[in-house]
C-alpha cells in the first residue's frame, strides 16, 4: 500500500495566490497523494512516457514522475506495484511503494546494489567494450580480404553485445507501437542491418551503450546532491530505556526516548538537550559553518554532529518527521512544481517526436515513390533521422539543472520549494526587506526610560511589562527583559485589549493605561507637543519609541533600539552586484528610525509606519513597477507580504513548520547572506537552463539540416543525439560549484 503524503505539494495554505503560479487554496476534498520510489529510469523522455501511462490508469486524477529524484507521485487511487511495473515494462522500471523506500528496499528486489559500482564497471559498459573489440576485428578482417560472412558475423555479435539492453526494452515497444527512445534505436539498428549497413549498425549500438552509461552516471551525480542529505543522519542510535543503554534503529525510537550522544557522533533525531553541554555542527540543517553551543533546554537537529561534550537528548520527533526529513522531502519533491520553462519544453517534446518520426517515414518513402530515387540511400537517411527523433537532451535540460541547484541550496541551508520558485528568484528585479528580525537582529533592548509625571522608572517598567506580557510584538519582549533585569514583577492587568500593529491597553492598580506607538497616540487625539522634541531626537538616533499614558495624556517614554545585523550592509551591496535593482525597507516603525536604519544598510527606498496590510499594498505596488519582486521577512508575522511577493523568503525557520509551509524560499538560520547566494544560484540556474535548451535545439536542428542533403550518417546521428544529452547534463553539474560567499 502506498504511503499518502498530504503535505507533498502544499504551498502557502490559506494565503492569497501569486499571479502566474499554482493556486494555493487548500482543497478540503483534494484526493490523496501517494509516493513511490523508482529505479531503472533510463532517460527523461521515457520518464515522461511513463508519467502519461500512469495518468491514464483507472482511478488516477493526476501523476508526476520526478526524474531528478526518481519518484512517482500519484494523486487519486493508489496503484499496486505490479500494475505500475506493468506500465513501466517498456523501460524495465521497478517500483517500491512509499516515500521513505530507498536503496535497501530496491536492492532487496534486485534492482540496485547496496554500493553503486563506478560507471566503467557496469555490465553494459563491459559489453560495449567487447563490442568495440569485435568492431575493430571486423574492420581488420574486411581489410585483410577475409570472407565477408566472417566480418558480418563479427558485426552482428557487436550489435548484440552493444545493444542488448536497448533491444530488450525496444522490441516490446515496437510491438505495442510505443516508439520511445529504445524502440526508435532498435528500429534504426535493425533497419541498418536489413539494408546491409552492418558496420554502421554495430557502431551505433556501441556508441549508444557507452553514452547511455555515461548519461546515467552524470545524472546520478546530480541525484547524489540530494541523496547526500539523506546520508547525513545515522541509521542507529544509543538510547536509555528502563535504566539500560541499548543501540536501536532510528525507526524504533519513540518520542520521549532519551538518546545518548557522545563526542564525535551524529545526532540521529530531532530533540532537546536535557543533560550535558557541547558544541554542535548543524551545517546539515542551517548551513552554519561554525559549531553552535548547546546546553540543557536547547534544540538539536537530526544529522548534526556533536563536537565536544557528551549530551543526553530527549527525542521530540520520529525519524520521518525530523527537520532533516522535511528538508529532504521538500528538496526531492521540488521538481513537482515545474518551472514554466520545463512545462514549455515538455509540450514541445510531445510535438517534436511524432513530427520527426513522420518526417523520417516520408524521407524513406517519398523520394523513391515520387522521384524514383534509390530505396537503400533513402531508407538509410530516414533511419539516421529517426535517431534524432528522441528529445532526451531537450527534456532533461531543465530538470537536471533544477535538481542539482536544489541539492546545492539545501546543503547551504536554503530551501527552494520548487522549480518555479528557483526560476522566479533568478528573475527578481527588486527585493523588499522587513526590518525587525531581518535587517536587524530582532532582539531589541530598552535604552532609555523617561517619566513625565510622578512615575519612577521602576513604576513605568512595572506597568508597561504588565500590559506587554500579553503581547507578541518584539518590542514587548524588550520591555519584559528590561523589567526582569531590574528584578521587577510585572503589574497585574485587568481588562486587557490588544490593537494589532498599534498597541494595547489595560488596567493596572485601578488605573487604565495605554501603550503603543506615537502614531497611534496621535490617531487617538492625544496632544504630543510637549514630548515631540524628545521623540524626534531619539528617532534620529535610530531608536523606536513606545509611549505609556492614560487615555488623553502621556506619562512616560520608553526608547528601544534594535541592533543592525553586521552583514546587512554587505548583503544589500551584494544584491546590487547580483543584478537586483532597487532594495526597499518596509517597516511598521516610525519614519525617522526607519531612515536611520536605511542609511546604515544602504537600501534605496524606505517605507515606514506600515501596518501588515500596508506592506501587502507596498509589495503589490512594487510588483507593478518592477515586475518580479522578492520579500524577505521572518516567515510568520510577514506571511501576507511574503505571499504577495513573486518570491517570499523566510528567515530563521529551522524546525518551524509554519514558516516551512508558508515561504517559497526558506533560510534555515538567521544568515542574511544566504539571500544574495539564493539570487546568484537562481540566476546561474536560469543561464544553465537557457544554455542547455540552446545546445539541445542546435544539435537537433543541425541534424535535421544535415539529413536533407543526405549528409547525416547513422553514427553521426547517435553522436549528436547522445552527445547533446551528455553536454546538457555535464553543463548542469557546473552548478555544484556555486557556493555562498564568506
From TrEMBL:
Main location group: membrane
Occurrences of domain HMA (ranges): 32-96
Classification via CDD domains: HMA
Keywords (A to Z) from UniProt: ATP-binding, Cadmium, Cell membrane, Ion transport, Membrane, Metal-binding, Nucleotide-binding, Phosphoprotein, Translocase, Transmembrane, Transmembrane helix, Transport
Region (Disordered): 1-30
One annotated GO molecular function: P-type cadmium transporter activity
Topology of this chain in the membrane: Multi-pass membrane protein
Gene3D superfamilies associated with the record: 3.30.70.100, Calcium-transporting ATPase, cytoplasmic domain N, Calcium-transporting ATPase, cytoplasmic transduction domain A, HAD superfamily/HAD-like
Transmembrane segments: 147-167, 351-376, 382-408, 688-708
Protein name, per record: Cd(2+)-exporting ATPase
Species of provenance: Kyrpidia tusciae (strain DSM 2912 / NBRC 15312 / T2) (Bacillus tusciae)
Amino acid at each position: 500500500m502506498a504511503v499518502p503524503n498530504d503535505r507533498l505539494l502544499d504551498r502557502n495554505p490559506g494565503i492569497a495566490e501569486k499571479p502566474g503560479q499554482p493556486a494555493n487554496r487548500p482543497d478540503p476534498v483534494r484526493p490523496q497523494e501517494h509516493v513511490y520510489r523508482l529505479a531503472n529510469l533510463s532517460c527523461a523522455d521515457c520518464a515522461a512516457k511513463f508519467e502519461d501511462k500512469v495518468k491514464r490508469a483507472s482511478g488516477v486524477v493526476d501523476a508526476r514522475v520526478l526524474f531528478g529524484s526518481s519518484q512517482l507521485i500519484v494523486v487519486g487511487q493508489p496503484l499496486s506495484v505490479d500494475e505500475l511495473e506493468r506500465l513501466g515494462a517498456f523501460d524495465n522500471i521497478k517500483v517500491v511503494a512509499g516515500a521513505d523506500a530507498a536503496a535497501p528496499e530496491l536492492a532487496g528486489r534486485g534492482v540496485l546494489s547496496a554500493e553503486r559500482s563506478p560507471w566503467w564497471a557496469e555490465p553494459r559498459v563491459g559489453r560495449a567494450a567487447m563490442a568495440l573489440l569485435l568492431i575493430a576485428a571486423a574492420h581488420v578482417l574486411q581489410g585483410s580480404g577475409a570472407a565477408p560472412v566472417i566480418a558480418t558475423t563479427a558485426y552482428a555479435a557487436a550489435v548484440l553485445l552493444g545493444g542488448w539492453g536497448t533491444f530488450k526494452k525496444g522490441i516490446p515497444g515496437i510491438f505495442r507501437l510505443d516508439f520511445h527512445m529504445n524502440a526508435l534505436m532498435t528500429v534504426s539498428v535493425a533497419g541498418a542491418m536489413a539494408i546491409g549497413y552492418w558496420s554502421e549498425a554495430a557502431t551505433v549500438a556501441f556508441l549508444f551503450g557507452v553514452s547511455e552509461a555515461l548519461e546515467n552516471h552524470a545524472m546520478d551525480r546530480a541525484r547524489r546532491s540530494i541523496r547526500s542529505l539523506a546520508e547525513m543522519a545515522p541509521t542507529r542510535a544509543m538510547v536509555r530505556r528502563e535504566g539500560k543503554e541499548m543501540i536501536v534503529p532510528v525507526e524504533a525510537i519513540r518520542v520521549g526516548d532519551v538518546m545518548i550522544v557522545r563526542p564525535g557522533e551524529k545526532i540521529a533525531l530531532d530533540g532537546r538537550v536535557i543533560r550535558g553541554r557541547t558544541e554542535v555542527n548543524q551545517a546539515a540543517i542551517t548551513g552554519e559553518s561554525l559549531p553552535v553551543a548547546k546546553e540543557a533546554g536547547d534544540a538539536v537537529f537530526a544529522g548534526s554532529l556533536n563536537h565536544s561534550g557528551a549530551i543526553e537528548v530527549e527525542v521530540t520527533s520520529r525519524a520521518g518527521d525530523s527537520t532533516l526529513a522535511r528538508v529532504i522531502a521538500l528538496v526531492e519533491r521540488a521538481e513537482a512544481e515545474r518551472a514554466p520553462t520545463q512545462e514549455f519544453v515538455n509540450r514541445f517534446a510531445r510535438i517534436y517526436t511524432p513530427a520527426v518520426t513522420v518526417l523520417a517515414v516520408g524521407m524513406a518513402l517519398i523520394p523513391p515513390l515520387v522521384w524514383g530515387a534509390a530505396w537503400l540511400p533513402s531508407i538509410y537517411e530516414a533511419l539516421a533521422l529517426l535517431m534524432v527523433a528522441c528529445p532526451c537532451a531537450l527534456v532533461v535540460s531543465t530538470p537536471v539543472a533544477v535538481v542539482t541547484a536544489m541539492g546545492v541550496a539545501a546543503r547551504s541551508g536554503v530551501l527552494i520549494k520548487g522549480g518555479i520558485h528557483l526560476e522566479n528568484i533568478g528573475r527578481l528585479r527588486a527585493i523588499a526587506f522587513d526590518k525587525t528580525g531581518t535587517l536587524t537582529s530582532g532582539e531589541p533592548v530598552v535604552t532609555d526610560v523617561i517619566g513625565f509625571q510622578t512615575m519612577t522608572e521602576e513604576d513605568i517598567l512595572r506597568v508597561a511589562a504588565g500590559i506587554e506580557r500579553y503581547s507578541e510584538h518584539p518590542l514587548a519582549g524588550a520591555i519584559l527583559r528590561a523589567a526582569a533585569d531590574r528584578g521587577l514583577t510585572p503589574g497585574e492587568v485587568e481588562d486587557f485589549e490588544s490593537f494589532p500593529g498599534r498597541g494595547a491597553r489595560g488596567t493596572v492598580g485601578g488605573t487604565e493605561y495605554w501603550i503603543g506607538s506615537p502614531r497611534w497616540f496621535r490617531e487617538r487625539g492625544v496632544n504630543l507637543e510637549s514630548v515631540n522634541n524628545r521623540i524626534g531626537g531619539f528617532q534620529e538616533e535610530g531608536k523606536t519609541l513606545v509611549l505609556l499614558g492614560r487615555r488623553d495624556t502621556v506619562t512616560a517614554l520608553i526608547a528601544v533600539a534594535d541592533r543592525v545585523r553586521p552583514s546587512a550592509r554587505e548583503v544589500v551591496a551584494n544584491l546590487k552586484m547580483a543584478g537586483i535593482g532597487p532594495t526597499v525597507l518596509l517597516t511598521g516603525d516610525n519614519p525617522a528610525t526607519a531612515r536611520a536604519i536605511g542609511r546604515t544598510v544602504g537600501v534605496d527606498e524606505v517605507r515606514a509606519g506600515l501596518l501588515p496590510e500596508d506592506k501587502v499594498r507596498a509589495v503589490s505596488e512594487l510588483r507593478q513597477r518592477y515586475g518580479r519582486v522578492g520579500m524577505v521577512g521572518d516567515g510568520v508575522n510577514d506571511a501576507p507580504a511574503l505571499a504577495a511577493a513573486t518570491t517570499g523568503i523566510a528567515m530563521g525557520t529551522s524546525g518551524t513548520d509554519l514558516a516551512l509551509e508558508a515561504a517559497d524560499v526558506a533560510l534555515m538560520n538567521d544568515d542574511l547572506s544566504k539571500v544574495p547566494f539564493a539570487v546568484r544560484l537562481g540566476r546561474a540556474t536560469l543561464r544553465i537552463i537557457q544554455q542547455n535548451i540552446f545546445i539541445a535545439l542546435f544539435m537537433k536542428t543541425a541534424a535535421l539540416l544535415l539529413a536533407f542533403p543526405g549528409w547525416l550518417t547513422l553514427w553521426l546521428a547517435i553522436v549528436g543525439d547522445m552527445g547533446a544529452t551528455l553536454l546538457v547534463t555535464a553543463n548542469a553539474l557546473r552548478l555544484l560549484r556555486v557556493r555562498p560567499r564568506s
